[in-house]
Design goal:
The complex is a heterodimer of chains A (about 210) and B (about 500).
Chain A lengths: L1 H20 L3 H22 L5 H29 L11 H21 L11 H18 L3 H19 L8 H29 L13
Chain B lengths: L4 H15 L5 H22 L13 H27 L5 H20 L3 H19 L5 H34 L8 H6 L6 H19 L7 H8 L2 H28 L3 H24 L4 H22 L2 H31 L10 H4 L1 H14 L7 H14 L3 H27 L6 H5 L25 H15 L3 H12 L6
Helix pairs in contact in B: 1-2, 1-4, 2-3, 2-4, 3-4, 3-10, 3-13, 3-19, 3-20, 4-5, 4-10, 5-6, 5-10, 6-8, 6-9, 8-10, 8-11, 9-10, 9-12, 10-11, 10-12, 10-13, 11-12, 11-17, 12-13, 12-16, 12-17, 13-15, 13-16, 13-19, 16-17
The chains are: A mainly alpha (about 210), B mainly alpha (about 500).
Chain lengths: ~210, ~500
């Protein structure tokens, strides 16, 4: 099992690099969807969720994280004919390099913690840290509002990976509540995106600078 | 009756308001407000059991917040009926529905005991209140809503990470207990200290963002100034308290785990930074709603500082929490009248409020006296206790900075308020307003000469302010006991 977990997590680590280097939105959405799928299967692969309810919950998570959220964002782009570039503040090459440094640092940091789940997988914590920091990075270093929302989703995926350590602890209904909150949040952001596009003609957040002191 | 009913009432009426006809909204707001207050008083007196007792439970600090939320919502709903009549919104159905769902989620925060349920409820308050900020459908309100949703969601995501780290602290410490504040506080010493510290840092950043502590406060002035007055009053009066509740409970957990010095110091420093930032921005503020918003940042800073000091300071912080809600919501409601009367958010476009709207002016000035921390309003006692506690516990520098900042803030605030109330009225706002870029779009465009002060639009403020005065002189025994029980965790009380 541990081999399967580590293999899929290493794919997620690789996808972090692709996300940071991505120049266009559809590619970025696909990467985030892929991360959502893998991340929601991790508890099952570790062997946490082998009950009927557990499997049902994993499927629900997979559908929401891997399908519904990316689709909602994708539809928002298509319907409003939003420009497809991510409009980086930090360019793709510099982002890629930072991503490499991040993964190395995350692996190094992850080794110094002794998590109770360490026997399941060595890559769990490095992946979580990479997703968290890369999500934050997208939020800060992209002007396109959609890229920022995708950064937020990535951050949430990272937290979910950390959360797999506690999935044996809390009830599925609580985790489902968290998932619904994230979903509703992304939906509201998608609606706001459409309004921003209508009002400003673009989703470049540098256009949203009228309120200040 | 189960405890959960208290948040199910507004949930049901909220869905009704969304799906029912438009005329449903206003009466539904008031009816729910009254019913909710009744339910809250029942909860206070009877202390019913929760149906899902692993997720929900009554706590003294939660009870205090619940009753404050309930009272405020009832009064604000009365104001809202007058406000909506005076200034109809394009989407009244969404506004009323969101107000009710917002009430429901905030109520859920106050009775949450499970750490993750608390997080779910706090994030849900963000989502329910987002449509309220976007009520005016202008570009500015869109920007404010976008900032609010994104910054708060990301901030609160970090609080989720912090909550997850608490469960890791349980795993590492081999604590086998429910993931609830009450169960964990009882066994806090077994939790793994380094993980708990890390968890606290993330939770402070997360809930601190929502509470409006500097430097994570950047969304707050925008959101509070762009929302319509009843929504701003709720946002500033009680939403900040909900986030504080999450912080307070985590601090109590840290205290029980013997890490209170660490978490207290973090709270004190963040509180002090907030007070200083607010002082800087209040001095050179040009819009009165933003002025009030920064004053909220200041008060949240004072509350965090008091909580961090502990003991008498924590008791003072609880008083500040209650009285800030009462006074600040009254101020935001009055600001709604001012906005309707002058059609501009700029202080320079107002003037002679005392002559134009004497009743609103009285409420606004009284609110100003209260928020500046003068007797007979209750905030005075709270701030006094915190200052005394700061010197008594050996933090004279913090106490000194607090006193100085309060003076600066008072001076800045007074300058603006006197301009607003007695300054020369900006000549004929009717004509100038059309071309003014600052006030166009998002602001309502009433005819100033037509704006009459209606009873529903100043009595709620009077009731709020007199409650604050009353509580300063006469505090019911049960209220005192509840506050003492709440701060008992942090070694508070006299």
């Amino acid at each position: 099992m541990s081999l399967l977990v580590d293999t899929s997590l290493s794919l997620v680590l690789f996808s972090v690099l692709i996300a940071l280097g991505a120049g266009r939105l559809p590619g970025l959405i696909r990467v985030v969807a892929f991360q959502g799928v893998v991340v929601s299967m991790v508890p099952l692969l570790i062997g946490h969720n082998l009950s009927v309810g557990g499997v049902a919950f994993t499927v629900a998570t997979l559908v929401i994280r891997g399908l519904v959220i990316p689709l909602a964002i994708y539809v928002a782009i298509r319907r409003k004919a939003i420009r497809q570039e991510v409009e980086p503040i930090v360019g793709p090459h510099a982002s890629l390099l930072l991503g490499l440094v991040l993964i190395v640092a995350a692996t190094w940091v992850g080794r110094s913690f002794h998590l109770p789940t360490a026997d399941h997988s060595k890559l769990l914590l490095p992946t979580a840290i990479s997703l968290l920091v890369a999500g934050m990075f997208l939020l800060m270093a992209r002007r396109n509002a959609i890229a920022m929302v995708l950064g937020y989703v990535m951050l949430e995926n990272g937290i979910y990976v950390v959360g797999t350590t506690f999935s044996a602890r809390t009830h599925h209904i609580v985790e489902f509540g968290i998932l619904l909150d994230v979903l509703a949040g992304v939906m509201i952001m998608a609606i706001l995106l459409q309004h921003i596009k209508l009002a400003a003609g673009d989703v470049d957040t540098s256009l949203l600078r009228s309120l200040k002191d | 009756m189960h405890l959960e009913l208290v948040f199910l009432i507004p949930l049901v009426t909220g869905i009704l308001a969304f799906s029912g006809p438009k005329s449903f909204g206003r009466p539904l707001l008031v009816i729910t407000g009254v019913a909710h207050l009744g339910a809250s008083v029942y909860v206070w007196v009877q202390r019913p059991e929760a149906f899902f007792s692993s997720y929900f439970a009554i706590s003294p600090e939660g009870l205090l917040s619940l009753v404050v939320i309930s009272l405020l919502f009832m009064l604000i709903s009365i104001y809202a009926t007058g406000y909506l009549e005076e200034h109809p919104l394009a989407s009244e159905r969404v506004f009323c529905g969101s107000m009710l769902l917002f009430l429901s989620t905030m109520t859920m925060v106050t009775i949450s005991d499970h750490i993750m349920v608390m997080w779910i409820a706090i994030e849900a308050t963000t989502l329910a209140s987002a449509p309220l900020i976007y009520s005016h459908r202008s570009k500015k309100s869109l920007e404010a809503t976008w900032k609010y949703v994104l910054i708060c969601s990301v901030g609160i995501a970090l609080a989720l990470l912090g909550s997850v780290l608490i469960t890791i602290a349980m795993d590492v410490g081999k604590v086998d207990a429910p993931v609830s504040f009450s169960a964990l506080t009882a066994r806090a010493t077994d939790l793994d200290a380094p993980w708990l510290k890390a968890a606290f840092v993330f939770i402070v950043v997360g809930y601190g963002t929502k509470m409006g502590l500097a430097p994570m406060h950047t969304w707050l002035p925008d959101a509070h100034s762009e929302a319509p007055a009843p929504a701003s009053a709720l946002l500033s009066g009680v939403l900040l308290n909900c986030a504080y509740l999450g912080l307070f409970k985590t601090h109590a957990l840290m205290q029980a785990a013997g890490l209170g010095d660490f978490s207290g110091m973090v709270l004190m420093v963040l509180g002090l930074v907030s007070i200083l930032v607010a002082a800087t921005f209040i001095m050179r503020q040009q819009e009165y709603k933003r002025l009030l918003a920064y004053s909220s940042v200041e008060n949240m800073g004072i509350i965090a500082l008091g909580t961090g000091i502990g003991g008498l300071g924590a008791y003072g912080a609880m008083l500040c929490l209650i009285h800030h809600s009462l006074i600040k919501s009254s101020l935001f409601l009055s600001s709604g009248n001012i906005l309707l009367g002058y059609g501009s958010r700029l202080i320079s476009k107002t003037g002679n409020l005392a002559g134009k709207m004497p009743r609103t002016c009285l409420a606004f000035l009284a609110g100003f006296v209260g928020i500046a921390g003068f007797p007979p309003f209750g905030l005075f006692l709270g701030e006094l206790f915190i200052i005394v506690a700061a010197f008594r516990t050996g933090h004279p520098v913090f106490g000194g900075i607090l006193v100085l900042s309060l003076c600066v803030i008072f001076a800045g605030f007074a300058n603006h308020v006197i301009r607003l109330a007695y300054g020369p009225a900006a000549q004929d706002q009717d004509q100038g307003r059309g071309q003014d870029p600052e006030s166009s779009g998002s602001t309502p465009t009433p005819n100033p000469t037509l704006f009459q002060e209606k009873a529903t639009m100043f009595w709620p403020q009077y009731v709020l302010l007199s409650t604050s005065v009353l509580l300063c002189f006469w505090m019911p025994e049960t209220l005192y006991k509840t506050i003492a029980a709440a701060v008992g965790y942090t070694g508070g009380g006299f």
